[in-house]
């Protein structure tokens, strides 16, 4: 009888612990949860922290996006940007699911995912596709690829890298998502006469980026958003007619601009690390991504960006 009572008491303790972790009292748990986050972040394992994250730790950044010649039916449209999910053996679904829920609460009309969806084998392609399929946006979810979507295979292993990226593309399309690899997608709500053009460029690191193909047929008098994973080549893409470029890749870090980064990247430093940049009269925004990286400092928190389209009257 005593053994049965002890067993029940232990089960109740386990149930209370599970409930405590699932529905945390943030005031009481802030210190130890922050300590766990900082410890894993120092070694690049942010995603290991699969327990619920305090919403105030996530930077939900809101910004207007002025575009020239924007159709009145597109004014006020909300576009959510997420980047660098890195779904992998160390960045778990439970950790990423909470971001999907928070994006849906923002009620965007369009969601864009700017690369590095996975860092893992073929099975993570299907997993990230099923995860992103839970995003709710009437004009769809657009995905572009980054270097990790080609795995560790750079230009020296183009065949294997392409096989992995192609498998990821098929998985995403199978789940109803839009994939842009050097191609354009038009967003045109009912009643609009001029669509919004969204150009998605493929990954540069793998040698897959083809801007000529992506911007083919587009003109500077059209409202155009360019999705380009790595912002390092922003200046090189100035010859093409985009007004806004949305990127990721950096995780908010300035490694490429420091003394070590200058030795590793002698020709192209990482000047665009996080946030907004005005570049030669155009607009670049670098999203810090959701996971897998140094997240110790406050300015380097995971980020969801919400843009609201507006007419650029200064360009008229």
Short description:
The protein is of the alpha/beta class. It has helices at 2-22, 26-41, 93-105, 123-132, 158-174, 211-214, 259-264; strands spanning 59-67, 78-82, 110-114, 141-144, 178-179, 183-187, 196-200, 224-227, 244-247, 275-279, 282-286, 303-311.
User: Any idea of the CATH class of the largest domain?
Assistant: Alpha Beta
Instruction: State the CATH superfamily name of the largest domain.
Output: Metallo-dependent phosphatases
Query: Reading side by side through the largest sheet, how are the strands ordered?
Result: 1-12-2-3-4-5
Task: Encode the helix/strand succession as letters.
Answer: HHEEHEHEHEEEHEEHEEE
Number of helices: 7
| Biggest sheet architecture | 6 strands, mixed
- State the helical fraction: 25-40%
The CATH level-2 architecture of the largest domain is identified as 4-Layer Sandwich
Number of strands: 12
User: Structural class, judged by helices and strands?
Assistant: alpha/beta
Rg over C-alpha atoms, rounded to the nearest angstrom: 21 Å
Q: Whole-number average pLDDT?
A: 85
């Amino acid at each position: 009888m005593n053994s049965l009572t002890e067993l029940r008491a232990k089960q109740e303790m386990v149930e209370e612990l599970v409930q405590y972790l699932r529905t945390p009292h943030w005031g009481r748990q802030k210190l130890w949860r922050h300590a766990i986050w900082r410890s894993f972040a120092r070694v690049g394992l942010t995603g290991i922290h699969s327990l619920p994250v305090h919403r105030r730790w996530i930077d939900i950044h809101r910004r207007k996006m002025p575009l020239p010649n924007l159709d009145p039916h597109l004014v006020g449209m909300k576009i959510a940007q997420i980047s660098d999910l890195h779904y992998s053996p160390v960045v778990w679904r439970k950790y990423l699911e909470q971001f999907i829920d928070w994006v849906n609460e923002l009620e965007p009309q369009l969601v864009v995912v700017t690369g590095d969806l996975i860092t893992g084998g073929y099975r993570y392609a299907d997993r990230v596709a099923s995860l992103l399929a839970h995003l709710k946006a009437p004009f769809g979810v657009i995905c572009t690829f980054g270097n990790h979507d080609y795995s560790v295979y750079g230009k020296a292993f183009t065949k294997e890298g392409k096989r992995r990226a192609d498998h990821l593309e098929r998985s995403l399309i199978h789940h109803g998502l839009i994939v842009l690899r050097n191609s354009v997608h038009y967003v045109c709500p009912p009643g609009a006469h001029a669509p919004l053009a969204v150009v998605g460029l493929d990954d540069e690191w793998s040698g897959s980026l083809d801007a000529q193909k992506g911007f083919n047929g587009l003109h500077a008098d059209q409202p155009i958003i360019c999705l380009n994973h790595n912002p390092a080549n922003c200046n090189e893409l100035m010859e093409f007619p985009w007004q806004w470029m949305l990127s990721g890749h950096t995780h908010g870090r300035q490694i490429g601009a420091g003394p070590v980064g200058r030795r590793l990247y002698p020709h192209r430093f990482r000047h665009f690390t996080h946030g907004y940049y005005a570049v030669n009269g155009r607009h670049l925004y670098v999203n810090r991504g959701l996971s897998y990286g140094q997240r110790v400092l406050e300015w380097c928190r995971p980020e969801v960006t919400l843009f609201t389209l507006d007419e650029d009257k200064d360009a008229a």
